[in-house]
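Project standup — Tuesday

K.O.: blocked on the structure for the chain from last sprint. Re-posting the sequence here as requested.
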Amino acid sequence: MWTFCGAKWLDPEIIDSRQPLTPEQFSSIIDSLADRIADWESYHV
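H.V.: unblocked you, prediction finished:
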């Protein structure tokens, strides 16, 4: 069904809360997620 609808699968992004992140690491993860979402939106619009 997923392929039939033309959807693009995004691999999950796992953030393990047991490992403390620096503000820079957290910011990098958020930026990466924003880029992935923007790419997904451009593919589906």
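K.O.: great, moving the ticket to review. The mean pLDDT is 81. Residues 12-43 form one domain.
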